[in-house]
Structure formats: C-alpha cells, structure tokens
Amino acid sequence: MRTKNTIIFSLISTLFLIFLISIWKILATLQGLSINSFNIEVLFLLGFLISLSHLGIGNKIKSIYKSIIFSSVFVFCDGYLIQKLPVWYNLGVFLILYFFSYKIGKYSFIGLKEEHSTQVILFDFLTLFGILFFSFVILFPFYMMLVTSFKTQIALLVNPLDFSINFGQDIKDLFKSYFVIFKSYKFGKYILTSTIVSVGTVIITLLFAIPAAYAVARLNFFGKTFLSTSILIIYMFPAIVLVIPLYTIFSQLGLRNSIEGLLIVYTATTLPVAIYMLQGYFKSIPKELEEAAILDKLSWFGIITKIIIPLSIPAISSVALYVFMIAWNEFLFSLMFLDNPNSFTLSRAIQYLSGDAETPRQYLMAGSVVVTLPVLFIFVYFEKYLVSGLTAGSVKG
Amino acid sequence: MNDTLANTEKKTAYILTLPAVLLVFAIILFPIFANVWISFKEVELKDIRIPEPRAKKIVKSISDEPSKIKILYKLRNSSLLQEIREVSFKDNFPKNFEIENLDPRCEYKKSSLKCEFGNWPAKYKENFQVIFSTNDGSKIDKKTLKSVKPKLDGKSDNILLNNNFTLKNFKKVLFENEFVDLLLTTFYYTFFGTVGSIVFGILTAQMVNQKFYGRTFMRSVLLFPYVAPVVALAYTWELLLDPNSGTLNSLLLNYQIIETPINLLGQKYIEISIFGFDFKLRLALTTVIMFEIWRYFPLAFLFILARLQAIPKELYEAADVDGASPFQKFFKITLPQITAVISILFMIRFIWNFNKFEDVFLLTGGASGTRTLPINVYQQGFAISDIGMGSAVSIVIVVLLLMFMFFYFRLLGKRVDEN
Fold first, then answer.
1. Which residues of B fall within a CB distance of 8 Å from A272?
2. Going from the N-terminus, what domains does chain B have, and what CATH number goes with each?
3. Min CA distance, B233 vs chain A (Å)?
4. Does residue A397 carry a pLDDT above 80?
5. What is the number of alpha carbons within 13 Å of residue A318 lying toward its C-beta?
C-alpha cells in the first residue's frame, strides 16, 4: 500500500512539475529565447527523483534548506547541463522549483499511509493544476491582444513568437497603433457613439424598468402572473429571429444608421432582464415602509422616488452595470443596422476594420484593447455588484 | 371603499407597466409575428425600400429682368423597380408672386403651386420648369425661395403589405438548402458547446470553492471571457490560430509537435487515426466549439459556484466522520446538490447556443463546415439578399426551439414527479 501510494504521489507531483516548467518554457519562448524542446524525459526523471528524495529525507533537514537544495540541483541539471539559457530564465525555474517543493512539503511517508491518501493527493494537485491551467488559458489571449497592439507589422512577420516589448523605444513608436486608429480611423468618434448608446440604454431601461418592476413586485392586477412569466420567456427569445423584421421595418422608417434605432432595440432587449432582476429585489424591501407612505398620502411616483429607489441602490447599480455591458458589447444589431461609418459603434468599427484584408493586425488588436479595457475595468472595479446581478437571475428562479 | 382602492391599484399598475410592455411588444413580439408574415413572401433586400417621389429645386435668375425668376424642379422616382401612382406636388411662394406659364397639370392658388403628375413608372425622370414674376416689380430674393422645399406625395405598392403568399421559401429551406447538414452542424455546435461549458463550469467551481491564496482574483479572471466584447475576443483567437503566422501554430512548429501548420479555422475535416481506426473530425467546427466553451463556461461556473457555496457544511463534516474519500464526497454529495442548477443551465445554454450568431460569424463567417442555422439566416437574408428565405429560416429556428422547450419541460416535469 505504501509503495503504491509513494509511486502514485511521485508520479502526480512530477506531472504537475512538468506542467509548471512547460508553461514557463512557453512564456520564455515568447520572450525570444530559442527553446526547441520541452525535454520531458529529463524533467520527468528529475521531478521523480526530487519527489522520492523529498519523501526519503523527510524531516531530517529543515524544509527551507531542502527546497533550496532541490531547486539548485534542478536548475543546474536543466539550465547548465542541457541547455544554456539566460539568468532570468533560470531564476524563474528556481522559483518554480521552490514553490513546488513548498507544495510537496505537506506530504510525508506517514501521511501516505492514511486512508484515501492517493485521492487526496490527486484532488490537491488537480486543484493546483486547474488554477494554473485556467489562468493560463484565459489570460493568454488577453496577453496576446495587448502585446500585439504594441508591435510593428515587420516584427510580427519576422518572428511571430517574439512577444517581448521594447520599452526603450520612443513613446510615439510604442503607441503607434493607438495613434493611428485614433487619427486615421476615427476611433474617438466610435468611442463616443458607443458611450452614448450604452449610457442612453442604461438610462432608458431604468426609466422603463423601475416602475414596471415595482408594479410586478407590489401591486395586484389582472395579468400579473402572465406578465412575470412572459418576461422570462421573452428573455430567452433569440435576437437572430428579430433581425430580419426589424431590419425591414427600420429601413422603411429610416431608423437604420441612427443612434435612436439602436437605443430602441437595446432597451427593448434588455428590459425583460432588468425588470426581472429589479422586481426580485423590490420584493425583499419591507412593505411597512410603503404602508406608512400611503398613509402620508404619497402617490406611487413619490413612493418609487422617495422610498424604493433610495433603498435599492445596490440592485439598481447592478442592473445598470449589467445593461451597460450588454449594450457596450452588443454586436449583432450594430452589424445589421449600421452600414454608414459615421454612425458605427466600437464593435462594428473593429469588424469593419477587419473586413479590409490590408489592415495590419496590430491596429485590429489596438482596437480590441480599446473596446475591451473599459468593460474589464468596470467589471473588476464593480465586481461585487455585477456578479450578484449575473447570478440573481437563474439560481433563485 | 376597498373596491375603489383595488381599482386605483389596478390603474396604477397598468400605467406603470404599460410603457415597458408596449416597447417590448413593438420590438420583440411584433417582429416575431412579422417574421411569419415575411417568410411566406418572395421579398428581396432591394424590394423593401419604399419608392419615393423626389424633387430637386434649382432657382435661376433671368438676366436683365430682376423681377422675374426661373425655377427648375428635377423630378424623379427614387425606385428603380416600382412605379409611384398619383404623385402630387405642392410648393409655396411669396404673396406677391404671379405665375407666367402654368402647366396644364397644375393650378396656382393663394400663392401655392399644386400639381397632379399622375403615375410615375420606375426610374422616371422629368425636368419641370416654371417662371414667376412679381406683381409689384420688386426684386426677388433667391435665398428665401431656395429655403422653401416642395412637398411630394404618392402611392406605391408596399411589397410587404400585398396579399401574395407563397410556400416557396419553406420548400427551399427544407429541401434544397442542405437542411440535414445544417441541422446537424447546429446540433453539434449547440450540444457540445453546452455540455463542454457545463463540465468546465463544474470543474472550475469545484476548484474555486476550495481555499487558496488569490481565490477572489481567480474568480474575476475566470469571468473575463464572459464579460469582454465578442469582437475583440474573436479576432484575438483568429490571430492566435492563424496558420501562417499565428502564435499557436508557430509554437507547435517550434517544439516540433507538428510538421506543417494546421488551419484550425479554415479546414473542414482532419483525419485522425486512433488504434488503427481512421476518424474524420470536423476541425473548424471543433475549434469554434472550443471558442464557445471558452467564452461561456464562466456563466456555468458562476451559477454552480453560487450553489456550491450554499451547500451546508454539515454534510461534508458528516461524510468526513464516516470516512468518505474526496471522490465519494464529490459524487455522493456535491453532484446531487447541483443537478437542479445544471438542468437549468443546460436549458439556458442550449437555447442560447442554438441561437448564437456572432461567435461563428466573426471566427469563420460560416465557412468550412461551420454554417449553423443563425448563420444561415444572415447568409440568406443579407448575403444572398433574399429576405423571405431568411425569415423562413428564422421561423424554423423558433419552431425547433419551441419543440425543444416543450420536450425538456415534459422530461423535467416527469422527473420532478418521480422525486
């Protein structure tokens, strides 16, 4: 039992180490180092030996010294015997190994005798592996987007693997793509249009949604249940089905290529979610407050503006942020309704830019950074509100 | 007393909900009905522009005679296809104006010129000229004359409103349009995209539900693909996967994992042999599904995490006392607790993936075997500019969706009854 557990532990930890080092090697390759092989056999051997000797040594040496010894041995073998690479690369490997031996420090021969220890090990390492894997897979495209926007056309073609940014160059050269898209492609105007459309959608949606949500949450009227169930069903209805009729109607009314047209459509498509999210929150406000207000002869307008809105600022802001994000990211309707470059939104402008095969990719990526940054900034800054807004819909319903 | 109170309550409720209901009705429900209507018609993109009678007014002074003026109207029918019937024309002039040459189709009364031009065929053009003089001999100001615009009116057939219906569109959609292939592609895309995003959602939620350093940061990072704009992400992926100088292919070539670059988004099939069996994998479709999973697993993650955090800790403590292994705890406690969320998620994501347009459109444009039903709506309606066909495809989408929802709820209802 113990031998089996020891071997399984060493195997799993070795695989984890190989994964760590491989990611580091990929990142190092992207900084311009020429690494042509992962040397998996060597990594495997070293990792396996380190895991085994960790168990063998046990507590005889202080764990810090143990980690340093392991790391140094690994760096020496991998970095100086097999491939000669710069110091910063080896420093990274050293830190990874230090982290690795800190992680395996928890396990000892005695612990491996316990019941389910293989499963516990597997679970622990899978979690670690998952954290790193998902961070890498998710962040890598964003990293690439950012780096590409700072490169030049020639640099990109000569070595597509060189992701290093030369910070020594002139600021004007570094941010050249950004200057170009703002000057020659009028991105300033598109940002303005996108902002007007998104903020406008938020305001109109709230104006329509707050009273309706209040009615659904509080008042009794014929057709209330029908209304609240149909809200959800409409929310599920696909936008692609609306596109053709709206296109024909908007063409005949001359609403295409106009901000007003986009505002109407965005508001209508976000209203159901907004009403649904708000009414759930309004229901949680104690009724006594309104009853007191009714005794004070406050009208419904007074109740909404003086009691409901001040009490539900968190919910309203989460709806507002959510709607803003939907409107800012929206692409389908802006593709259908806008064909005049003067009324483009950011998303549509980037798509238009990519339609021209001549457009250098760093401009495309600079545009992508410009459209992505505000959303990510808002998301990170107001994450609490947004996450509660995103989850409110489905888990409780 | 109570009655009147209930009545005012009702009234307020209707006033409060009416604006929202009207807007949603106009923009979401009405178009769905309009879709049914259009899908039975032969309409093309160029037919939907309403023909308009137009006039361009040109004011010309006549030399030597300052009290006289020549006005030229360039009249035309804006449509190249349809005629306009009973075109009427009206323009106003200053009070001291008198007309010199009155066209038989027109009359001049109370300083306004009214004409009935009759029917204009498609592409009709005419230069219509009138000469005015002032009755008091005063000088004429060209600017004020130019600022007044003539009004034109006319009747034309709106192709959308006539009563010609046809089943041609549906016949084409169902029998000529490689319908089975379209349906299969859509199904693969929807099903694997949904299942994949839920599986990754479970894995990541289980992961983040444990305590580790940087957990809140990890939670934000996991949601990045879901909140960032599609356009930016799709083009980044396109660059990443580009066969000529994309990062992924360059990396794989660099490490000698592959010998020739793979066109992940432009190749329909790839041959894979496992244990001597040769498979033909739909490569571009698989890549698009990967993107789909990458972009939407955060939603599943979010919902499942919220549910996981609501599971009472006592359950796990009791399991620990009984000596359950981590996998037993996962399969016996965690999974049963999240099945309800998963079934809701499956439905939501299935419906949304079924209708997803942007992702595939931006990545491949529907080429190399990634043409799904929503892409087909766009291709029929706007690339081939056959609006009727596009509508018919969207009706097919709606019908399929309703069928799916019907069966899903019946299945779900049965399972709830059994429990």
1. 24
2. 2-47 (no CATH), 51-155 (2.60.40.290), 177-385 (1.10.3720.10)
3. 8
4. no
5. 21
Q: How far apart are CA A163 and CA A140, in angstroms?
A: 12
Q: How confident is the model at residue A52 (pLDDT cuts 50, 70, 90)?
A: confident
Is the pLDDT score of A395 beyond 60? no
pLDDT in tens, A153-178: 888 777 778 777 777 777 888 888 88
Contact criterion met (CB < 8 Å) for A249 and B222 = no
Mutation target vs B (from A248, A297, A368, A375; most B CBs, 10 A cutoff):
A248
Provide the token pair at A185: 């492609």
Residues 93-152 of A with CB under 8 A from B: 115-116, 119-120, 122-123, 126-127, 130-131, 134-135, 137-139, 141-142, 144-145, 148
Cα dist from B281 to B264, B270, B369, whole Å: 11, 5, 11
Q: Examine the pLDDT at A223 and tell me if it is beyond 70.
A: yes
- Give CA separation, B374 vs A88, B32, B184, B352, in Å: 50, 15, 13, 11
pLDDT per position as a tens digit, B313-349: 888 888 888 888 888 888 888 888 888 889 888 888 8
CA neighbours within 13 Å on the CB side: how many for A187? 22
8 Å CB contact between A97 and A74: yes
Which of B10, B15, B17 is the best mutation test for A, with the most CBs of A within 10 A? B17
CB contact under 8 A, A241 and B397: yes
Q: Is-contact B372 B186, C-beta < 8 A? A: yes
**Measured between CB atoms, which of A265, A267, A364 is closest to B235?**
A364
Which segments in chain B show pLDDT lower than 50? 1, 419
How far apart CA B312 and CA B21 sit, in angstroms, is: 41
Task: Give the Cα separation of A23 and B7 in Å (integer).
Answer: 68
Q: Give the DSSP per-residue string, B350-364.
A: HHHHHT--HHHHHHT
Cross-chain CB nearest to A134 (options B204, B354, B378): B204
DSSP letter string, A184-199: TS-HHHHHHHHHHHHH
Answer yes or no: do A332 and B357 touch at CB < 8 A. yes
Secondary structure E strands in B241-386? 269-274, 277-282
* Domains of chain A, first to last: 2-158 (no CATH), 180-396 (1.10.3720.10)
Q: Around Cβ A311, how many Cβ atoms within 10 Å?
A: 16
Tokens standing for residue A123: 């679970």
Residue A61, Cβ neighbours under 10 Å: how many?
Answer: 12
